[in-house]
Amino acid sequence: MSKVFVPPIKCQGIKTKLAEWILAQVTFADDGCWIEPFMGSGVIGFNLRPKSAIFADKNPHLIRFYRAIQSGEITPARAKVFLESEGAKLSNAGQSHFNAVRARFNKEGSPWDFLFLNRSCFNGIIRFNSKGGFNTPYGHKPERFAQAYVTKIVNQIDYVSKAMRNSHWEFVCADFRDIINRATKNDLIYCDPPYLGRHVDYFDSWREVDERDLAALLAKTKALFIISTWHSNQYRKNTSLKKFWSDFTMLTREHFYHVGGKEENRNPMLEALVMNFEPGVSATDFESSREVKQLALMEKPVRYRVTTSVSTSRRHAIKSKC
Ligand SMILES: C[S@@+](CC[C@H](N)C(=O)[O-])C[C@H]1O[C@@H](n2cnc3c(N)ncnc32)[C@H](O)[C@@H]1O
């Protein structure tokens, strides 16, 4: 991939820096549908640009935003005018303008205000309180919408609107349980749910029962799937890997998170991809390779690409080379 496209809406856990690695594992039939039940920013699917896709999320504001681009309500030209005008107000009034837009958004839910807030709040974090009110604080950058930044966002909207034009993309606000069942044999489901035990806000709450339901649905799907999750950091391991995902193939890779002040964000984390196929196996070979997939979980994190199909002694040999 030449350059990873960054979408107009940011979110915590955005996979921009892992996009190339994730997309390198993707394989599915040309007539298949890309299904992303936890789209967030949509960075993975938007970079893949499949002909047919379902982008879904429980957060209605994300879906409303992309539907507004699809319907032509949000265009690059209109976005330029809007961001220049709101940017000038932010430059004059700073925090009080941010607060006014946030209050307006929490009353009316406009996708325009969602864009403004997302790009001027603290670290592009999308966070809601229990009543569904957006509550991320101001990013304290009154000159945020300088010309170069406005142009960057306008170009991001332009990319997505062009990508949608010649494709069959559906944007759906739904719980993952209602999306995964729509997958059929030739499809690929890419799941990036909130990481268990790490997120607590309204749209991102994720409990063990959710992970269990997800694993049960994916275990019986006829489609291919890939799920992003975390393997370990220097403090702890993701115990749900053993509990829910040990029947599948796993790859790991080190990743640095830079957002926030939490322990897991200040240190390298070992990211994991769990999938029901062997990376590098084409969709047509998939059915025959499916039966041979009973792979044990790695005991110890290993840097970069390791499948779990190796024996313990071989595993240590690989590890010592890294
Ligand atoms: C880690 S983010 C996805 C990030 C995305 N892959 C990216 O790179 O930008 C997880 C997303 O799952 C959504 N979500 C949380 N619980 C959900 C559920 N039960 N059903 C569908 N989406 C859910 C959140 O709103 C959030 O957008």
Elements, N to C (H/E)? HEHEHHHHHEHEHEHEHEHH
Number of β-strand runs? 7
The CATH topology name of the largest domain reads Rossmann fold
The CATH architecture classification of the largest domain is: 3-Layer(aba) Sandwich
Instruction: Kindly name the structural category.
Output: alpha/beta
Task: Enumerate the spans where pLDDT stays under 50 for 5 or more consecutive residues.
Answer: 283-322
Q: Tell me the number of helical segments per DSSP (H or I, 4 or more residues long).
A: 13
Arithmetic mean pLDDT:
85
Summary?
It is built from 13 helices and seven strands. It has 322 residues and is α/β, with parallel strands linked by helices.
Please specify the SSE layout and strand pairing:
Blueprint: H1 19-25, E1 34-36, H2 43-48, E2 52-57, H3 60-71, H4 76-93, H5 95-108, H6 111-120, H7 147-165, E3 168-173, H8 176-180, E4 188-191, H9 208-220, E5 224-233, H10 240-244, E6 249-256, H11 263-266, E7 268-275, H12 283-290, H13 312-321
Parallel strand pairs: 1-2, 1-4, 2-3, 4-5
Antiparallel strand pairs: 5-7, 6-7
The protein binds S-adenosylmethionine.
S-adenosylmethionine binds at residues 11, 13-15, 37-38, 40-41, 43-44, 57-59, 175-176, 192-194, 203-204, 206, 210.
Question: What attributes does this structure have?
Answer:
binds S-adenosylmethionine; disordered C terminus; Rossmann fold; Adenine-specific Methyltransferase, domain 2; 322 residues; single chain; 14% strand; alpha/beta; 7-stranded mixed β-sheet
